[in-house]
Amino acid sequence: MLIAGIVAFCLLLLVAAFVFPRLSRGPEDGAKGVLGLGGRGASKAPGRLGHWLAKPFRSSSKAVGKSGSKGREGRSKLPF
Fold first, then answer.
1. Between the chain's N and C termini, which has fewer beta carbons within 10 Å?
2. Using CA of residue 67, residue 70, residue 76, residue 77, what is the dihedral sign?
3. In percent, how much of the chain has pLDDT > 70?
4. Straight-line distance from the first to the last Cα atom of the chain, in angstroms, rounded to the nearest whole number
5. Spans of biased composition, class Basic and acidic residues (predicted)?
6. How far apart are CA 28 and CA 10, in angstroms?
7. Residues contacting 60, CB < 8 A, separation 6+
8. Contact 25, 33 (CB under 8 A)
9. Is there a domain that residue 12 lies in?
10. Tens-digit pLDDT profile for residues 42-59
């Protein structure tokens, strides 16, 4: 369920970054903050378990960042 939510948010952010490039930075930063908070909480687990539990939050945060940047990049390549 979490994966589907992240994918849906990335698609929404991609479209928002394409249509409103400057306004898409706020939601992107907010999502990265929430995912960072989850990753920090998960990394408190002892030993390697903390590393393993925090990894999905790191990769999701990278996906959100790439989605926003690709939307803004696509918009900047338009001829008008």
1. C
2. negative
3. 100
4. 39
5. 70-80
6. 9
7. 6, 35
8. no
9. yes
10. 999 999 999 999 999 999
**Alpha helices (runs of H) in the chain, residue ranges in sequence order:** 2-19, 25-42, 48-76
Give, to the nearest 10 degrees, the angle between helix 2-19 and helix 25-42.
Answer: 150
Residues 22-35: tens digit of each pLDDT: 999 999 999 999 99
The confidence score (pLDDT) of residue 28 equals 95
In whole angstroms, give the CA distance from residue 48 to residue 59.
17
User: How many domains does the structure of the chain reveal?
Assistant: 1
The CA distance from 5 to 1, in Å, is: 6
**78 lies in some domain:** no
Question: Does residue 80 fall inside a structural domain?
Answer: no
Q: Tokens representing 48?
A: 């390697």
Range of the domain at 29: 2-73
Task: State whether residue 77 is helix, strand or coil.
Answer: coil
